[in-house]
């Protein structure tokens, strides 16, 4: 029973980490889109946005991958049915 409780707790933590990673990816793409639009419209972009967008996408992808990896370690025979799309 205790093992099942631990597994459920780990699963909830992984799902939360996966959702947080998805949010980072979406935020990174949003910042990148705004930066690209400003570059097209006014010919310049925020230097911070130039570095933040790819960094946020990378952090989000890493969080998502780590969550899937951790869940697969806890439940090796579990098929992860989370969407791969952003």
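Q: What amino acid sequence fits the structure above?
A:
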């Amino acid at each position: 029973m205790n093992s099942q409780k631990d597994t459920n707790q780990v699963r909830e933590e992984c799902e939360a980490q996966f959702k947080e990673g998805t949010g980072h990816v979406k935020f990174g793409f949003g910042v990148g889109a705004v930066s690209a639009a400003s570059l097209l419209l006014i010919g310049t972009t925020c230097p911070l946005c130039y570095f933040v967008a790819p960094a946020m996408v990378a952090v989000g992808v890493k969080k998502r991958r780590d969550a899937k990896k951790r869940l697969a370690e806890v439940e090796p025979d579990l098929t992860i049915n989370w969407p791969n799309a952003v």
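Q: And what stands out in the fold?
A: The mean pLDDT is 84.
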